[in-house]
Amino acid sequence: MRKFIISSVIALASMPTFAQDKTPAWINNVKLSGYGMTQYQYSSQEGSESNSFNLRMLRLSLEGRILDDFYWKAQVQLNGNTSTLGNSPRVVDMFAEWQKYKFFRVKAGQFKRPFTFENPMNPIDQGFMSYSQNVSKLAGFNDRAGGHASNGRDIGVQLQGDFLKNKAGRELLHYQVGVYNGQGTNVKDVDQRKDVIGGVWVMPVKGMRIGVFGWEGSYARKGTWTADDGTAQNGVRSLDQHRYAISGEYVVDDWTFRSEYIHSTGKAFAKALVNTNDATSTNCELSSNGDKSDGFYGLVIAPIIKKKIHVKARYDMYRPTAEWSKSRTQYEIGADYVFHKNFQINAEFARINDRSLAKHNYNMVDVEIDFRF
After folding, report:
1. Which residue of 142, 150, 228, 276 is surrounded by the most CB atoms within 10 Å?
2. pLDDT mean across residues, the chain
């Protein structure tokens, strides 16, 4: 009997196992990451004083590779209630990109528009309490044209690549161009027209980029408005948008220098789209700011202790009418302390000059604690 039991155990141990299937390779390539930004902000603007703590944003993302050549990413943002497009939990990225060749990559889905150097940057790495005003207003964040807050993103298809290697094996030229709905994140096309956006930059020395960008398209809304002759109109109103940017950046030895000028020609809706359930979402009346705007910023971030403590300064100007009568300028100084690569604190003071206000000048203080995982 004992001999029979031993023989049976040996036979069972030698049998092939079918229950322990191998985990698919693509699952092993999936990565979960994210970051959070908490904020305290003070403003002395007359009539709109504020002094508040805030949860600026939390983002969670999944990314991975399939068959080596394909990269994919899905990212959501949580930073407010569920009633408005700008503050609701929402998808910000969802795309796949074919990356077989470095000089020719194809991306499809929802992702950053290829316009300016600052737009694609992570908001922590961008370095200041917010993106510059010209990028925010003219690259699809809180866009001048009246679109909902889209974090610089849209839905479409993009080609990009790097080529012309030097002797050290570093590419000297980058290009990117895409076709998009023109309506921002999570919204279908309205006027059946598409935006064409692209840029090219040269990298003459390591850490330096000099680029130009162009944007030809439209922003549309379906609703009602009053024509110039006083008659009531109803339907789709499409506003042409023509934009260009000139950009420069130099990052070396933990120093950062960056500057960008953006110019826009194109009319805008008077009311921004913030809630699809609100009556203002069908308001197609035009803004009184006309059809031109521009903005410029220049910044420097300098290390006191490399990779640990930095001081920074930024000049940030935006003109909603391309004239000085309504210009808004921020003069900013600040510092950050990096406790760990995944944890830092930032503090900033800004003197604001807003010529559209009765009292032009006021102050802002911003303190943020940022973490990644």
Report:
1. 150
2. 92
